[in-house]
Structure prediction request, 224 residues.
Amino acid sequence: MAVVELKAVSKSFQSGESLLTVLDNVDLTVNEGEVVVVRGSSGSGKSTLLNLIGGLDTPSSGDIEACGYAVSKLGERDLTEFRASRLGFVFQFHYLLKDFTATENVMMPAFMRGMPRAEATERAQALLAEVGLSERQTHYPTQLSGGERQRAALARALINEPPLLLADEPTGNLDAENSLRVEEQLLELVRRHGTSLIIVTHDDRLATRGDRTLTLERGALVTS
Prediction:
């Protein structure tokens, strides 16, 4: 069953007097539970691709469907609901709130969607345990290492049990040891939870770990 479908999607930006085409007539299907890795040089459009799928940007042409939503046709209110209920995002930077504990950071998306505080806390603590942070639940981001902060961000991305996770260079700010640990836990988490994953990365090792690896070249997606 398809979780994501892009049909003839293009995205162009105005650059001075010229029109810069970043994505050119891209087709992509991602199935339920599939891990798809997208590679490409800096500026090739990898992040743009994720932003379009996540409804953070709009295509110049073409259609995008994700998790049963016609993303490219949604208004802002429906996009907000789509992102809150169907997507998890993991970025290169963790974006944890410094005045909240690890548990509070992880539980926040669920609590904001109306989940009772006790249930959201319990779910957050269970996810923190899954990423090896049981003993860091009451720690603040400044008390966590870079790898621990990114692992907390993984837990937060899954708190609402989204069918789709979008990860943009999730190990890009980490040293080799922490990159490997975050990579392993990311892949283990999505497979355990049955979550589809689209990940963009420069990491050659991580690029070999998906079910499929694609490369963005001159605006087109090609199989690596």
User: Anything to note?
Assistant: The mean pLDDT is 90. The domain at 2-223 is CATH 3.40.50.300 (Rossmann fold). Residues 36 and 198 are 5 Å apart (CA to CA). Helices lie at 46-53, 76-86, 102-112, 117-130, 146-157, 176-193, 204-207.
